[in-house]
């Protein structure tokens, strides 16, 4: 028996929904863009449990209020109101799903990975993710609570 296209579509939709629920996030200063949705996969509940040695998919849908030739991501672990830089494999937004140059009034899906290294301590903290334009202004900035665990 061959499953119907509708049954396959519903099954795929259910699987995708289970992995990437839109997160509750705090906007921490998006000036040149507006965030429509933030997804971290897998992160079924908040705070997100980030397991050491695992990489997480980040998908941010945002609308740009400006034009920019490029964009750059900066990621921090925030502890006691101190931002500790968190290296990511690809900081260039134009290599992370965004078609550059960025156009005013267009929506974009920013895609990246958040690797959690085995040597990170097991702690609760806030992940702060910024994407800046050519003028070092925030296209978006969001924060979510996470717990790094073994």
From TrEMBL:
Keywords in alphabetical order: Disulfide bond, Secreted, Signal
GO (cellular component) term, any one: extracellular region
Listed SMART domains: ML
Coiled coil (UniProt feature): none
GO MF entries: cholesterol binding
Gene Ontology biological process terms, A to Z: cholesterol efflux; intracellular cholesterol transport
Domain MD-2-related lipid-recognition: 25-146
Location in or out of the cell: Secreted
Signal peptide per UniProt: 1-20
Primary site of residence: secreted
Highest taxon of the lineage: Eukaryota
The family this protein is said to belong to: Belongs to the NPC2 family.
Protein name: NPC intracellular cholesterol transporter 2
Organism: Setophaga kirtlandii (Kirtland's warbler)
Lineage: Eukaryota, Metazoa, Chordata, Craniata, Vertebrata
């Amino acid at each position: 028996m061959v499953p119907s296209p509708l049954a396959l579509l519903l099954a795929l939709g259910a699987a995708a929904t289970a992995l990437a629920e839109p997160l509750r996030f705090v906007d921490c200063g998006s000036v040149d863009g507006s965030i429509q949705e933030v997804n971290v996969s897998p992160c079924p509940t908040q705070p997100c449990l980030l397991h050491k040695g695992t990489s997480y998919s980040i998908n941010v849908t945002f609308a740009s209020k400006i034009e920019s030739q490029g964009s750059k991501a900066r990621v921090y672990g925030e502890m006691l109101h101190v931002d500790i830089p968190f290296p990511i494999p690809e900081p260039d937004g134009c290599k992370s799903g965004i078609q550059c140059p960025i156009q005013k009034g267009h929506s974009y899906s920013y895609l990246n990975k958040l690797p959690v290294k085995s040597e990170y301590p097991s702690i609760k903290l806030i992940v702060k993710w910024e994407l800046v334009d050519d003028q070092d202004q925030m296209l978006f900035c969001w924060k979510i609570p996470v717990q790094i665990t073994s």
